[in-house]
Structure prediction request, 364 residues.
Amino acid sequence: MDKIGADRVPIGAMKILSCYHEVQQILSGKMPVPRTMEFFLSNVCNHACAGCHSRYMHKSEDQFLDFDTMKEVVDDFAELGVEGVEISGGGEPLMYPQIIPAIAYMRGKGLKVGIFSNGTLLTDELSEFLVQNLLFLRIAFDAGTAETYKKIHGRDDFDKLIENLKTVIRHKTKDTEREKGTGKPRRLTDAKFGTATVGAKYLVSTKNWHELAQAAGLAKEIGLDYLQYKALRASKFTIEGETLEKAREVAVQAEELSDERFQVFGSLEKTKPIGRCFLNPLHPVIDAKGDMYLCAFFHHRKDTHKIGNIYEKSFPEIWYSERHLEAFRTTKPKECAVFDCPFHEAAVLARAWIVENQKHLEFI
Ligand code: SF4
Prediction:
């Protein structure tokens, strides 16, 4: 029999097929339990990236989500059956003063946790903790040189980032070996997953497209698991025309670095929705002010995408409210087309396989 290979990259539209029951619930007019909750625990950031769509939030007075409120919301997630919590921003998650207790609390409730970070605030102790307690750590890795990094991030932190990532990988390697050797429990609860997947995210713009392959080479050398690239949108630094042509060639060079252990993947092409979104209930967001939004792409439509505030109402009250249904029913495809939302591609599969049932999923 031929070997059936499994793609080890934990990102991809195919994952939507695991939400078969949730999508059916949505189609029948009911709100499913979200598969992933995204949290912006911090509104502040130690960097000032060119093209950052959350920059206006960094001036907020409500800098961090209140720790006790966060715990109450996490209790609700666990009770309802949410499975994953993604901590991103907004601001830089590692600036949240109680980041370790927050993750420990989520893990203690049986939730799986992943973080998006710029990686510059990682310490030895924090790296060890994260490697042992996260399902994934994804780091903004937007340059192949210190000079370009500074131009994008507004801080001269590239060398520090590289050193921090080496520390993370050192702990990851140690963790894997220790686990293999002694079988001692290394985590807060009875997690069955391995040490954190550590990847890089490269947001391609007019400032850095030429260093994509160089950055991928560095990420591979450090020992990261993957580098994902994506085009920056809705910015004066968005690549177009001839630059886009050249960037595509560099992307091919970067992808050639993929091997059994390290993957480079992504796309520079603009994605578009196939119609009104029917997937956002799978992945809503709560920001540091407690505001809850339909999805992470809310910055250009804050009022229409806001469905409540967790300082005012509980998570289930907001989630199962009329306001949520109304916001869900009135999303505008034109506004969804501003950014390359991963659900654009996922919706194509979900429509064909689940909505139209082209594969007769009742039969296996
Ligand atoms: S941007 Fe649009 S398509 Fe993407 S999740 Fe949000 S509502 Fe859905």
In short: The mean pLDDT is 93.
